[in-house]
Amino acid sequence: MASTTDAALPGAARQVPRPPAEPSPDEPDEPAPFKVVPARHYARWAAALAVVVLVAQFVHGLATNPVWEWGVFRDYVLSETIVQAVWVTLQLTAYATVLGFLLGTVLAFMRLSRSPVLQTVAWTYIWVFRSIPMIVQLVFWFNLSALYKELGVGIPFGPVFWSVESNSLIGTMGAAIIGLTLHQAAYAAEIVRGGVIAVDHGQLEAAAALGIPRLRQIRRIVLPQAMRAILPTAGNEIIGLLKGTSVVYVMSIGELFYQVQVIYGRNGRVIPLLLVATAWYVVLTSLLSVAQYYVERRYARGADRTPPPTPVKRARRFVRTLRAAAARPDRPVVPLTTTGTLGEGR
After folding, report:
1. pTM score, two decimals?
2. Section 49-59 average pLDDT
3. Burial class (CB in 10 A: 0-12, 13-18, 19+), 248
4. For the chain, what is the mean pLDDT?
Protein backbone atom coordinates (compact mmCIF):
# COMPACT_ATOMS: atom_id res chain seq x y z
CA MET A 1 0.00 0.00 0.00
CA ALA A 2 1.29 3.46 -0.90
CA SER A 3 1.79 5.96 1.83
CA THR A 4 -0.16 9.20 2.05
CA THR A 5 2.92 11.14 0.90
CA ASP A 6 3.18 9.06 -2.23
CA ALA A 7 -0.52 9.39 -2.88
CA ALA A 8 -0.26 13.17 -2.69
CA LEU A 9 2.21 13.16 -5.57
CA PRO A 10 0.49 11.24 -8.37
CA GLY A 11 2.74 10.55 -11.39
CA ALA A 12 5.81 11.88 -9.66
CA ALA A 13 8.96 9.80 -9.63
CA ARG A 14 9.91 8.49 -6.31
CA GLN A 15 13.14 9.89 -4.94
CA VAL A 16 15.16 6.95 -3.75
CA PRO A 17 18.30 7.97 -1.88
CA ARG A 18 21.47 6.52 -3.40
CA PRO A 19 24.50 5.47 -1.44
CA PRO A 20 27.70 7.51 -2.04
CA ALA A 21 29.68 6.19 -5.02
CA GLU A 22 32.86 4.44 -4.14
CA PRO A 23 35.96 5.48 -6.09
CA SER A 24 36.90 3.09 -8.85
CA PRO A 25 40.20 1.35 -8.37
CA ASP A 26 41.08 2.18 -12.01
CA GLU A 27 40.72 5.93 -11.55
CA PRO A 28 43.86 7.61 -10.12
CA ASP A 29 43.54 9.74 -7.04
CA GLU A 30 43.90 13.52 -7.42
CA PRO A 31 47.52 14.52 -6.81
CA ALA A 32 48.10 16.43 -3.66
CA PRO A 33 49.42 19.96 -4.15
CA PHE A 34 53.20 20.18 -3.77
CA LYS A 35 55.76 22.93 -3.71
CA VAL A 36 58.17 23.23 -6.64
CA VAL A 37 61.71 23.93 -5.46
CA PRO A 38 64.17 25.05 -8.18
CA ALA A 39 67.45 23.17 -8.36
CA ARG A 40 70.36 24.96 -6.81
CA HIS A 41 73.73 24.47 -8.48
CA TYR A 42 76.09 25.62 -5.78
CA ALA A 43 79.20 24.09 -7.40
CA ARG A 44 78.39 25.75 -10.72
CA TRP A 45 77.90 29.11 -9.03
CA ALA A 46 81.17 28.76 -7.14
CA ALA A 47 83.06 27.83 -10.32
CA ALA A 48 81.55 30.78 -12.22
CA LEU A 49 82.48 33.15 -9.40
CA ALA A 50 86.05 31.84 -9.31
CA VAL A 51 86.39 32.29 -13.09
CA VAL A 52 85.03 35.85 -12.91
CA VAL A 53 87.48 36.71 -10.13
CA LEU A 54 90.42 35.29 -12.09
CA VAL A 55 89.43 37.17 -15.25
CA ALA A 56 89.02 40.38 -13.27
CA GLN A 57 92.46 39.94 -11.74
CA PHE A 58 94.00 39.33 -15.17
CA VAL A 59 92.35 42.41 -16.67
CA HIS A 60 93.40 44.47 -13.66
CA GLY A 61 96.97 43.28 -14.11
CA LEU A 62 96.91 44.22 -17.78
CA ALA A 63 95.72 47.69 -16.93
CA THR A 64 97.94 48.43 -13.93
CA ASN A 65 101.17 46.46 -14.37
CA PRO A 66 103.79 48.88 -15.78
CA VAL A 67 105.81 46.03 -17.32
CA TRP A 68 103.31 45.76 -20.18
CA GLU A 69 104.29 49.28 -21.32
CA TRP A 70 101.15 50.04 -23.30
CA GLY A 71 102.66 53.28 -24.53
CA VAL A 72 105.40 51.37 -26.35
CA PHE A 73 102.77 48.98 -27.70
CA ARG A 74 100.77 51.92 -29.06
CA ASP A 75 103.85 53.41 -30.73
CA TYR A 76 104.80 50.23 -32.61
CA VAL A 77 101.56 48.37 -33.34
CA LEU A 78 100.81 50.48 -36.45
CA SER A 79 104.33 51.51 -37.32
CA GLU A 80 105.47 51.23 -40.92
CA THR A 81 107.97 48.46 -40.17
CA ILE A 82 105.40 46.28 -38.44
CA VAL A 83 102.75 46.83 -41.13
CA GLN A 84 105.23 45.84 -43.85
CA ALA A 85 106.13 42.73 -41.85
CA VAL A 86 102.43 41.84 -41.59
CA TRP A 87 102.16 42.17 -45.37
CA VAL A 88 105.09 39.75 -45.82
CA THR A 89 103.38 37.30 -43.44
CA LEU A 90 100.16 37.51 -45.45
CA GLN A 91 102.06 36.93 -48.69
CA LEU A 92 103.76 33.82 -47.33
CA THR A 93 100.45 32.49 -46.05
CA ALA A 94 98.59 33.16 -49.31
CA TYR A 95 101.22 31.61 -51.57
CA ALA A 96 101.71 28.55 -49.38
CA THR A 97 97.95 28.05 -49.00
CA VAL A 98 97.08 28.25 -52.71
CA LEU A 99 100.06 26.29 -53.99
CA GLY A 100 99.96 23.81 -51.11
CA PHE A 101 96.30 22.92 -51.57
CA LEU A 102 96.68 22.69 -55.36
CA LEU A 103 99.55 20.24 -54.97
CA GLY A 104 97.76 18.51 -52.11
CA THR A 105 94.66 17.97 -54.26
CA VAL A 106 96.79 16.34 -56.96
CA LEU A 107 98.45 14.11 -54.34
CA ALA A 108 95.09 13.17 -52.86
CA PHE A 109 93.74 11.95 -56.20
CA MET A 110 97.02 10.17 -56.87
CA ARG A 111 96.47 8.20 -53.67
CA LEU A 112 92.89 7.46 -54.72
CA SER A 113 93.90 6.32 -58.21
CA ARG A 114 94.11 2.69 -59.26
CA SER A 115 97.73 3.02 -60.37
CA PRO A 116 100.10 1.44 -57.83
CA VAL A 117 102.90 3.73 -59.02
CA LEU A 118 100.90 6.92 -58.37
CA GLN A 119 99.68 5.58 -55.05
CA THR A 120 103.22 4.74 -53.93
CA VAL A 121 104.69 8.08 -54.99
CA ALA A 122 101.92 10.07 -53.28
CA TRP A 123 102.10 8.00 -50.09
CA THR A 124 105.90 8.36 -49.96
CA TYR A 125 105.73 12.12 -50.46
CA ILE A 126 103.17 12.53 -47.67
CA TRP A 127 105.14 10.27 -45.36
CA VAL A 128 108.44 12.11 -45.93
CA PHE A 129 107.17 15.68 -45.65
CA ARG A 130 105.03 14.95 -42.60
CA SER A 131 108.02 13.35 -40.90
CA ILE A 132 110.50 16.21 -41.37
CA PRO A 133 109.95 19.33 -39.22
CA MET A 134 109.15 22.50 -41.10
CA ILE A 135 112.21 24.37 -39.82
CA VAL A 136 114.48 21.63 -41.18
CA GLN A 137 112.81 21.83 -44.59
CA LEU A 138 113.19 25.60 -44.67
CA VAL A 139 116.90 25.46 -43.81
CA PHE A 140 117.37 22.77 -46.45
CA TRP A 141 115.78 24.85 -49.21
CA PHE A 142 117.66 27.91 -48.03
CA ASN A 143 120.93 26.01 -48.60
CA LEU A 144 119.87 24.38 -51.86
CA SER A 145 122.79 25.95 -53.72
CA ALA A 146 125.20 23.93 -51.59
CA LEU A 147 123.66 20.76 -53.02
CA TYR A 148 122.89 21.90 -56.55
CA LYS A 149 125.02 24.72 -57.94
CA GLU A 150 122.92 24.96 -61.09
CA LEU A 151 119.45 23.96 -62.19
CA GLY A 152 118.83 23.24 -65.86
CA VAL A 153 116.51 21.81 -68.48
CA GLY A 154 117.52 19.08 -70.88
CA ILE A 155 117.24 15.41 -71.74
CA PRO A 156 117.10 13.12 -68.67
CA PHE A 157 120.53 11.59 -68.08
CA GLY A 158 121.68 13.50 -71.16
CA PRO A 159 122.85 16.94 -72.24
CA VAL A 160 121.53 20.11 -70.59
CA PHE A 161 120.15 22.78 -72.92
CA TRP A 162 119.63 25.60 -70.45
CA SER A 163 120.87 26.13 -66.89
CA VAL A 164 120.93 28.84 -64.26
CA GLU A 165 122.54 29.23 -60.87
CA SER A 166 120.38 28.10 -57.94
CA ASN A 167 120.90 31.33 -56.01
CA SER A 168 119.71 33.37 -58.98
CA LEU A 169 116.64 31.22 -59.56
CA ILE A 170 115.54 30.68 -55.96
CA GLY A 171 116.02 33.59 -53.61
CA THR A 172 115.33 33.73 -49.91
CA MET A 173 111.63 34.47 -50.35
CA GLY A 174 111.31 31.77 -53.00
CA ALA A 175 112.98 29.20 -50.77
CA ALA A 176 110.58 30.05 -47.95
CA ILE A 177 107.55 29.71 -50.25
CA ILE A 178 108.80 26.38 -51.62
CA GLY A 179 109.43 25.00 -48.14
CA LEU A 180 106.05 26.12 -46.79
CA THR A 181 104.23 24.88 -49.91
CA LEU A 182 105.76 21.41 -49.91
CA HIS A 183 105.18 21.04 -46.19
CA GLN A 184 101.59 22.23 -46.47
CA ALA A 185 100.84 19.99 -49.46
CA ALA A 186 101.46 16.85 -47.43
CA TYR A 187 98.77 17.80 -44.91
CA ALA A 188 96.41 19.24 -47.54
CA ALA A 189 96.53 15.94 -49.43
CA GLU A 190 95.15 14.03 -46.45
CA ILE A 191 92.52 16.69 -45.80
CA VAL A 192 91.26 16.55 -49.40
CA ARG A 193 91.41 12.75 -49.48
CA GLY A 194 89.32 12.54 -46.32
CA GLY A 195 86.70 14.86 -47.81
CA VAL A 196 86.51 12.87 -51.05
CA ILE A 197 86.16 9.58 -49.19
CA ALA A 198 83.26 11.08 -47.21
CA VAL A 199 81.20 11.47 -50.42
CA ASP A 200 78.88 8.54 -51.11
CA HIS A 201 80.32 6.33 -53.85
CA GLY A 202 76.86 5.96 -55.31
CA GLN A 203 77.15 9.56 -56.54
CA LEU A 204 79.96 8.54 -58.89
CA GLU A 205 78.13 5.44 -60.01
CA ALA A 206 75.04 7.49 -60.88
CA ALA A 207 77.16 10.06 -62.74
CA ALA A 208 78.96 7.33 -64.66
CA ALA A 209 75.61 5.76 -65.59
CA LEU A 210 74.54 9.13 -67.03
CA GLY A 211 77.68 9.27 -69.16
CA ILE A 212 79.28 12.25 -67.35
CA PRO A 213 83.05 12.41 -67.98
CA ARG A 214 85.32 11.50 -65.11
CA LEU A 215 86.87 14.96 -64.76
CA ARG A 216 83.45 16.61 -64.67
CA GLN A 217 82.30 14.10 -62.05
CA ILE A 218 85.15 15.21 -59.79
CA ARG A 219 84.74 18.92 -60.50
CA ARG A 220 80.94 19.22 -60.38
CA ILE A 221 79.80 16.35 -58.15
CA VAL A 222 82.54 15.10 -55.83
CA LEU A 223 84.39 18.27 -54.80
CA PRO A 224 81.28 20.43 -54.05
CA GLN A 225 80.03 17.74 -51.67
CA ALA A 226 83.47 17.03 -50.25
CA MET A 227 83.97 20.71 -49.40
CA ARG A 228 81.68 20.39 -46.36
CA ALA A 229 84.11 17.87 -44.86
CA ILE A 230 87.24 19.61 -46.16
CA LEU A 231 86.59 23.19 -45.05
CA PRO A 232 86.65 22.88 -41.23
CA THR A 233 89.97 21.05 -41.21
CA ALA A 234 91.38 23.16 -44.04
CA GLY A 235 90.50 26.37 -42.21
CA ASN A 236 92.23 25.11 -39.10
CA GLU A 237 95.28 24.18 -41.18
CA ILE A 238 95.45 27.62 -42.82
CA ILE A 239 95.31 29.33 -39.43
CA GLY A 240 98.12 27.08 -38.26
CA LEU A 241 100.09 27.98 -41.39
CA LEU A 242 99.62 31.70 -40.69
CA LYS A 243 101.22 31.27 -37.30
CA GLY A 244 103.75 28.79 -38.67
CA THR A 245 105.20 31.43 -40.99
CA SER A 246 107.04 32.76 -37.94
CA VAL A 247 109.46 29.85 -38.42
CA VAL A 248 110.98 31.58 -41.47
CA TYR A 249 112.80 33.92 -39.08
CA VAL A 250 115.69 31.43 -39.39
CA MET A 251 116.04 32.62 -43.02
CA SER A 252 116.16 36.31 -41.98
CA ILE A 253 112.97 37.14 -43.88
CA GLY A 254 111.28 40.31 -42.65
CA GLU A 255 108.00 38.76 -41.54
CA LEU A 256 106.16 39.80 -38.38
CA PHE A 257 107.98 37.78 -35.74
CA TYR A 258 111.41 38.48 -37.24
CA GLN A 259 110.83 42.24 -37.28
CA VAL A 260 109.59 42.16 -33.69
CA GLN A 261 112.77 40.33 -32.68
CA VAL A 262 114.91 42.90 -34.47
CA ILE A 263 113.16 45.81 -32.76
CA TYR A 264 113.25 44.48 -29.21
CA GLY A 265 116.85 43.40 -29.80
CA ARG A 266 117.65 47.08 -30.30
CA ASN A 267 115.56 48.77 -27.62
CA GLY A 268 115.21 45.93 -25.10
CA ARG A 269 111.41 46.31 -24.81
CA VAL A 270 110.64 42.60 -25.12
CA ILE A 271 107.19 42.39 -23.53
CA PRO A 272 105.42 45.22 -25.41
CA LEU A 273 106.93 44.10 -28.74
CA LEU A 274 105.74 40.55 -28.15
CA LEU A 275 102.31 42.03 -27.43
CA VAL A 276 102.45 43.75 -30.82
CA ALA A 277 103.05 40.43 -32.57
CA THR A 278 100.36 38.77 -30.47
CA ALA A 279 97.79 41.43 -31.31
CA TRP A 280 98.44 41.14 -35.05
CA TYR A 281 98.26 37.34 -34.99
CA VAL A 282 94.95 37.52 -33.09
CA VAL A 283 93.51 39.98 -35.62
CA LEU A 284 94.62 37.94 -38.63
CA THR A 285 93.39 34.62 -37.25
CA SER A 286 90.06 36.23 -36.34
CA LEU A 287 89.62 37.47 -39.92
CA LEU A 288 90.44 34.01 -41.24
CA SER A 289 87.91 32.48 -38.85
CA VAL A 290 85.19 34.85 -40.07
CA ALA A 291 86.01 34.02 -43.70
CA GLN A 292 85.93 30.31 -42.88
CA TYR A 293 82.49 30.70 -41.29
CA TYR A 294 80.96 32.29 -44.38
CA VAL A 295 82.61 29.86 -46.80
CA GLU A 296 81.33 26.90 -44.78
CA ARG A 297 77.89 28.47 -44.73
CA ARG A 298 77.90 28.80 -48.51
CA TYR A 299 78.83 25.16 -49.12
CA ALA A 300 76.25 23.99 -46.56
CA ARG A 301 73.34 25.34 -48.61
CA GLY A 302 72.63 22.00 -50.26
CA ALA A 303 72.37 20.12 -46.97
CA ASP A 304 70.80 22.80 -44.74
CA ARG A 305 67.96 24.59 -46.51
CA THR A 306 67.28 26.90 -43.56
CA PRO A 307 70.69 27.78 -42.12
CA PRO A 308 70.77 29.74 -38.86
CA PRO A 309 71.08 33.51 -39.20
CA THR A 310 74.52 35.01 -39.28
CA PRO A 311 75.75 37.15 -36.37
CA VAL A 312 75.15 40.27 -38.47
CA LYS A 313 71.53 39.27 -39.13
CA ARG A 314 70.99 38.46 -35.46
CA ALA A 315 72.37 41.87 -34.50
CA ARG A 316 70.07 43.60 -37.00
CA ARG A 317 67.04 41.73 -35.70
CA PHE A 318 67.93 42.62 -32.15
CA VAL A 319 68.18 46.31 -33.10
CA ARG A 320 64.81 46.15 -34.86
CA THR A 321 63.30 44.54 -31.76
CA LEU A 322 64.63 47.33 -29.56
CA ARG A 323 63.30 49.97 -31.95
CA ALA A 324 59.87 48.33 -32.00
CA ALA A 325 59.85 48.19 -28.21
CA ALA A 326 60.80 51.88 -27.98
CA ALA A 327 58.15 52.87 -30.51
CA ARG A 328 55.35 51.03 -28.67
CA PRO A 329 56.15 51.05 -24.96
CA ASP A 330 52.56 50.14 -24.05
CA ARG A 331 52.64 46.81 -25.90
CA PRO A 332 54.99 43.95 -25.10
CA VAL A 333 57.29 42.95 -27.94
CA VAL A 334 58.10 39.32 -28.66
CA PRO A 335 61.67 38.65 -29.88
CA LEU A 336 62.16 38.14 -33.59
CA THR A 337 61.58 34.68 -34.99
CA THR A 338 63.90 32.83 -37.30
CA THR A 339 61.98 34.12 -40.32
CA GLY A 340 62.74 37.71 -39.40
CA THR A 341 59.18 38.81 -38.59
CA LEU A 342 58.39 40.81 -35.53
CA GLY A 343 55.79 39.30 -33.23
CA GLU A 344 53.98 41.55 -30.82
CA GLY A 345 51.90 40.59 -27.84
CA ARG A 346 48.19 41.01 -28.29
Report:
1. 0.74
2. 94
3. buried
4. 82
